[in-house]
Write a structure and sequence with these properties.
CATH topology: Lipocalin
Number of strands: 17
Structural class: mainly beta
CATH class: Mainly Beta
Shape: elongated
Strand order of the largest sheet: 1-2-3-6-7-8-9-12-13-15-16-17
Amino acid sequence: MVMADSCHRQYTNFWSRDAMPQFIFKLFLSLIITCLCLPVTVWGENQENRQPEATGPWFTGTLLSTRGLTLDQGHAVVQPYFYFTQYGGLYNDNWRLQSATVSDTIVQQTYLIYGLTSRIDVEIAPQWLRNSAEGESISGFGDLPIQLGFQALRSDSDSWVPNVRIWVQEIFPTGHYNNLRPSVNGLAGTGGGSFATTLGIGVQKAIRLGGDHVFRYRVNATHGFFSSVTVQGFNAYGGGFGTEGRVDPGSVTTLIVAGEYSLTKHVDLALDIGFQAITATEFSGTTGVGVNGEPAAVGRGSGNLLTVAPAVEYNFNQHVGLIAGPWFSLRGKNTTEFFGVVAALFLYM
């Protein structure tokens, strides 16, 4: 569950645009080669968080973080997610909140995860979106993420060494982003029009505190970069009448620190703290004019965003669970302020 993908908001990183992708590619290529070359004993079975034990306690996973363990071979997880988000302001370049037109976004996204082998799993997450503001709306299927995960390290349940999973995700531009209706100017489309490649690493460990009380932490770090997009007219990046050119959406870096604590065998508390950054969007071409004849704007400057998502989980057994809670921004720079509600159903098969 990646923060930016869920609400189609783009953020950036502190690294240079040229140096960071090269560094990440080299790092992940090395990790993948290491994964494939490790002896079989490293990949031995470990029941902690792999297949939930019948005795519990059980976890669904937090609202935003991604797992640090691949699924067992032949097993699957289905997680329908529902997001309702309201955007009510803008953080300016000085991290101050300013008023803006209120808009709403509804996203229904279903994560389908399958264990290909004992150390490789695959995930696909189709989504449907509806953006609305001031009586106008745009809806449709969004971009399609497909992810391949590799188990880089699996530790024993009685060890303090964490489990580590790495993944590569590609987002295919299946959503509507170009030649939008002038009446929905200012609303994002249902996609970005760009092929987006994201490389990520997830660290996870469960620590037993006695009885049914278990604390599980997760740390996720990702870097995503986007192909350039040809835009015309009103589009997901702005634009207007006569707009024509190419947009370079920049790149996104995300860090999520998350934790879950089991109050009882069935009830858990969860918390995500996330930080995102995005490089500035670059546009080349004809900007065109807006609905009132003003020069159209395409893209935005670099920005940062700090968010938090507390949640409550209820797990009926090791196969079925529910999680729900708010997700909202705390501080930002050149980004949108928001408050939302997220709910999900967890099905392990």
